Amino acid sequence: MSFDITVLGSSGGPLEGITCSYILKPSYITYKDIIQDELKQYLIAIDAGSGLNRITEIISTERTKEKDTLAMKVLSYYNDPLPIDQYSHPNISFSHEYGVCKLNKDSAPIELSFKILDLINNFLISHPHLDHINGLVINSPGFHYHSSKSVYGLKETTEALQNCIFNDIIWPNLVTEQNGSFLKLIELEPTKPMNIDDIYEVTPFELNHGKKHDNKTEYKSTSFLIKDSKTDQYILIFGDVEADRNAQSSKNKIIWEKISDLIIRRSLKTILIECSTPNLPAKEPRFGHMTPDSLIEELCTLGELISSKKSRYDVEPPLKDLNILITHVKERRSGHEPRRVILNELNELNERYKLGCHFSVMLTGLTYTV
Amino acid sequence: MSFDITVLGSSGGPLEGITCSYILKPSYITYKDIIQDELKQYLIAIDAGSGLNRITEIISTERTKEKDTLAMKVLSYYNDPLPIDQYSHPNISFSHEYGVCKLNKDSAPIELSFKILDLINNFLISHPHLDHINGLVINSPGFHYHSSKSVYGLKETTEALQNCIFNDIIWPNLVTEQNGSFLKLIELEPTKPMNIDDIYEVTPFELNHGKKHDNKTEYKSTSFLIKDSKTDQYILIFGDVEADRNAQSSKNKIIWEKISDLIIRRSLKTILIECSTPNLPAKEPRFGHMTPDSLIEELCTLGELISSKKSRYDVEPPLKDLNILITHVKERRSGHEPRRVILNELNELNERYKLGCHFSVMLTGLTYTV
Predict the structure, then answer these.
(1) Is the pLDDT at A267 greater than 70, yes or no?
(2) Res. A28: pLDDT tops 90
(3) How confident is the model at residue A144 (pLDDT cuts 50, 70, 90)?
């Protein structure tokens, strides 16, 4: 196994406080060791819609051995949730806890969670929509003075954070040197790899994420191809994204081209991507997001690229054993749990197009090992 | 009793998703009646750091009769919380639920919570700091199309929402007519009363909330004096605020002048105000917030104004039976629960200065009747 991904939020809203945020670490090191030895290079946050409150809640559940975990909470808002383990493919293991509570038996959950926050020094932000940055902003007064956390994003993202958020109007300006360098904004260039603390190599790719209200300009977003330098394993994590067909673009195809070789040589086994709603009638707007139909269409493109590069005697499904982790499902008014519908639709299409991948819908509060 | 206040969030951060937001209604009408008869004029939101997720969580707890309520959750992050009822003065009653679950027995918690959200058509925003607006923004895609919710604030607030948030960068522009009028931004003038749906009359007062990073410009905030037109009862709700002495200003004193007459004629029995941290050493920065020392100093000013207007034969404590509801307590790294410390400090000072008011620290998820 290569990576552990702790989901601090996997919802696409409109409920606040549970929107997208993931903490990544290599599987070869535990949270316990990271905290005990204060290892600052391993934990990396991808998007930050949620944050410290969710870390504290996971630890609190672990400490009190509560049966009602964070993962079950959002599901319990609906009438017809599946049992937790049915949201994940059997090949993926998951945990409800960090396994850190035995470390400091007298310390309160909030003390341990601040310790974890102190050890997350790098944030990759896919785009500046509020549901992907709120946690980073609200948590920032809890950062250690001179913690100098780094926030990486494409130019549009770092500029938006500086101009619209840390602008002494919406939030104090914590990003300039004179203010103690709570936060450093670091601009990424599309397709150019960035070394992070000699542990990770991150390559950003530009995505389309729907049209603005002028109906012309595109919202931009980012996917991050992350390599663990020690194991030479990769994971691909998407921000919000729409299908190439909807955007009349080929941005996603460029990414599929890039990773097809990695998949063939078994260096990339996991893609984390959004699927915001169940399939919709043709005329309904997607607001720059994926449905099962469009996600499968994208994965078919990836499958064709892989097939074209393989020996013609290879009869395996093109995406055999590739883990597709689904996030950013939008909550809805109806009592029917949308993750369940999306997972069913994806599994049916996976079968029909013989892709052979493994779908799991990520739940807030779980740590997945892939 | 005059008002019910449901606390969707009472924390001052840095934990996300539990920051300040209150729903106000007159006590003479129940949530059950409001939902059943779809009465759109009674519920009013003051600040919106939290929102739909917390409404759903309260309903979910009510539905499943869970013992671990939302109010207890944040406290459980610490080692030494008080029992819930010790955070409130005995004169105040509170509830963990809305009392609506028997209404629609088959509907899921999320269905009922969307119904409540649909019936909150007016938001008063004290200032545009993210911990006071995040819920409004993230929840907005869940508003009914053409719901035309009204967001009231001083000019600085409405301009910041338009320019920094609903600007097609941080969030889609949902505030212009052409986009279906999800939200109408309505500018308030300081000290000028505004009629809202013939139920409330709201008068905003400008507050100081600390210095920006240039160390010159002030963050502005707002307090709202809200009158229930039917009962002629008032409640005063503060956004983030610092003491007049710290701001070298008399903005708070102007408000105390205004309400002293209302208190004397028993028309204002409740003030909701922040107290962010326990008392601090003299040199530590307040970041534009209150401590028990500074809050008591402000209340002494109010007490003196009242005493000066009363008969000299009146020997009652000047703030007798005035309910002071404390919010915006900042969470902290240490395992010691800060609300408990603040409440103790306030009660001691109340005793020492013989003010005679009743202090309660508000907890997320509770509905207080005052």
Answers:
(1) yes
(2) yes
(3) confident
Q: Does A288 touch chain B (CB under 8 A)?
A: no
Indicate the SS3 state at residue A236. Answer: strand
Q: How many CB atoms lie within 10 A of CB B232?
A: 12
Q: Is A68 in Cβ contact with B56 (below 8 Å)? A: no
Q: For tokens 């917390």, what's the residue?
A: B54
A334 touches chain B (CB under 8 A): yes
A:110-139 residues touching chain B, CB 8 A cutoff:
110-111, 113-114, 128-131, 134-135, 137-139
Closest listed residue to residue B263, CA positions, set B214, B301, B212: B301
DSSP 3-state of B56: helix
Provide the 8-state DSSP code for B351: H
Structural domains in chain A, CATH included, are: 3-369 (3.60.15.10)
Q: What is the pLDDT of residue A213?
A: 82
Q: Helix (H, G, I), strand (E, B), or coil: what is residue A60? A: helix
Chain B stretch 241-280, residues whose beta carbon is closer than 8 A to a beta carbon of chain A: none
Task: Identify the residue among A10, A11, A15 best suited for mutation to test binding to B, counting B beta carbons within 10 A and taking the highest.
Answer: A15
Q: Do B213 and A178 touch (CB under 8 A)?
A: yes
- With beta carbons less than 8 A apart as the criterion, state whether B241 and B209 touch: yes
Asked if A232 and A279 touch (Cβ cutoff 8 Å), the reply is no
A 10 A CB-CB count for A356 gives 15
Is the model's pLDDT at B178 over the cut of 60? no
Cα nearest neighbour of B214 on chain A: A168
Between CA A208 and CA A188 the distance in angstroms is 17
Nearest neighbour of A52 by CB, restricted to B16, B135, B217: B16
DSSP output for B59-70:
HHHHHHT-SS-H
Q: B53 CA to chain A: closest CA distance, Å? A: 5
DSSP SS3 for B310: coil
DSSP string, A277-292: SS---TTS--TT---H
Q: Cβ atoms within 10 A of the Cβ of A224, count?
A: 26
ipTM over 0.85: yes
User: In this complex, is the C-beta atom of A177 within 8 Å of any C-beta atom belonging to chain B?
Assistant: no
User: Looking at CA atoms only, how far is residue B75 from chain A in angstroms?
Assistant: 10
> Is B14–A139 a contact, with Cβ atoms under 8 angstroms apart?
yes
Count of CB atoms situated within 10 Å of the CB of B178: 7
Q: Does B9 touch chain A (CB under 8 A)?
A: no
pLDDT averaged over every residue in chain B: 94
Q: CB-based contact (8 Å) between B105 and chain A?
A: no
Lowest mean pLDDT: which of A47-56, B198-207, B215-224?
A: B215-224
Mean pLDDT for A207-231 is 93
